Amino acid sequence: MAIAPNQSTGRRFWSKNVGGKHLLVAETVPSDQSGKTATQTITLSLFDSRSAAVAVASKTFTWAESALPEVTLQERPSLLIILKGRKSVAQLPFTIPKRSMLKLPEGTRFKAPVSVKSSFTSGDSRPKAGQSLSFIALTVLEEPTSDQKWEKLIDACNQNRDPTVFNFSVSVPKEDQLALIKIVVDRFIKTKNKDALHVFLTLIEQRIVTTSAFGDILSYLIEKDLYKLLIAFIRSKSTVVVDEAFVHVLKYAIGLKQDQTEEVFFGLVSKGFTASFLRKHFAELLTAAEAVKVLNLGVDVLDAKASNDVVCERIIELLLSLIDSNCDKLIWEDDAYAALKRAKDYVQSMADMTSAFTRLLSKNKALSQLPDLGAGAETDYVIQKVAFTKTTESF
C-alpha cells in the first residue's frame, strides 16, 4: 500500500503489511547533522490500511550506527520488530489488543516479551500475549457479566503459575485494578464458592493487582463486610498493610467474633507496622472504648502466642503506642484502669520471667565452665581452689 507523499517526512527504507489491515513503515528522519554523526534517527510509523492520512502510532529512536539496519517482522508467537546492524540489535514489541487499535510501545505500561531459552541449543521462545493472565483479566473487565470469560479467567488462575518477570503483560492501571477486584468480589458474594477466592488471591500473587491499590481494596472489603476475603488478603505473603489502613482494619476487627478478631489482629501484627505512624492514627481514629478493647485483645493474643518472640515483641510495641496516643482519653474511662492494670501486670510478669531465665542461663553457663565455683553466678567475684606446687629451697 502506498503512503501519501506529504506524509513521508524522511526516506522510507522498509515497509510491511501487518494482518492485512495495517502497514508498518520505517523511515529515516532528516537532520541538520546528517553525515556528521555516526548515528541515524529512525521513525517507525503504523498506518491503518483504510486511511493513510494519519499514522495510528509512531516511535522515534536513535540507531547507534551510520548504516541503516536490516528490519524484519516476527509475527509468531508474538509481534516483534527486529532491527539488526553490524554491531547492534534492537527489538521492539507491539500487540493488537481487542480493546483498542494496534499500538507501538509508547509508555511504561507495556512490557516486552522476553526471549527465553530452555537450553543452550534451543531457539528463542516467547509467550503469546493472549495467554497472559493480565490479558485474560482485561477481557473480563470488558464484559463483567460474561460467564464464558469468567470461566476462562478461572482456568488461567488454576494453572498455578509462579510469579515471573518473563510474562508478557500489560500493567493494569489502578482504576482498572479496583474495577476488576469489585467484579471478583461480586462473584464471591453471589456464588460463595472457592473459585472467586482463588481468583482474588491469584490476581494479587501474580502482581496483576499492585500495592498502589491495596489500601482501597481493604476499605472496600471492610465496607462489604467480607471477613473471608479480608483474612485471605492479610495472610497472603504478596500483600502489605500500610499504616494508614492498619488502624481501619483493626477498628473493623474488634467488632467481629472473638476468634475472628484474634485472627485478624495476629495477621496484622505479623505483617508489621511503624509505631511512630500508628500513634497518630490511633489518636485520630480510636475512641477510648475501642482503645480499651484493643488493650484487652493485645493481652489475650500475648498469652496465646507467648512462644512467638517476634509477635510478642510487636504486640508490646503496639500496646505502648496505643497507650501513648490515647492516654488523655483513657484516664477518664473507668474501664480503662482495669485494662491498663491487666496489660501492665502481664508485661511485668513477662519481664520478670525473662530476667529470671537470663539469670538461670548465666548461672548454668558459669557452673559448666567452672565446676569448682564456690560463689553464686550473680556475684561479681569467684572463689576457686588453686593447687600450688611444693618446692624445697636449699640455703
Number of strands: 7
Fraction of residues in helices? 40-55%
Structural class, from helix and strand content?
alpha+beta
Distance between the termini: 126 Å
Question: Going across the major beta sheet, what is the strand order?
Answer: 1-2-3-4
The SSE order reads: EEEEEEEHHHHHHHHHHHH
Please, what is the average pLDDT? 77
Q: State which percent range the strand residues make up.
A: 5-15%
Protein name: Mic1 domain-containing protein
Pfam families: DUF7951
Organism: Panagrellus redivivus
InterPro entries: DUF7951
Task: Give a brief description.
The chain has 395 residues and is an alpha+beta fold.
Structure description:
With 395 residues, the chain is α+β, with helices and mostly antiparallel strands. The protein has 3 domains: 1-104, no CATH class; 127-240, no CATH class; 254-353, no CATH class. It is built from 12 helices and 7 strands. It has helices at 133-142, 147-157, 174-191, 194-205, 214-223, 227-235, 243-253, 258-271, 275-285, 288-304, 309-330, 334-369, and strands spanning 11-18, 22-28, 40-48, 51-63, 70-74, 80-84, 89-93. The strands form 2 sheets. It has a 4-stranded antiparallel sheet, with no helix packed on it. A 3-stranded antiparallel sheet has the order 5-6-7, with no helix packed on it. Strand 3 (40-48) and strand 4 (51-63) form a beta hairpin. Helix 5 packs parallel to helix 7. The N and C termini lie far apart (126 Å). Residues 1-8, 97-113 and 162-169 have low confidence and may be disordered.
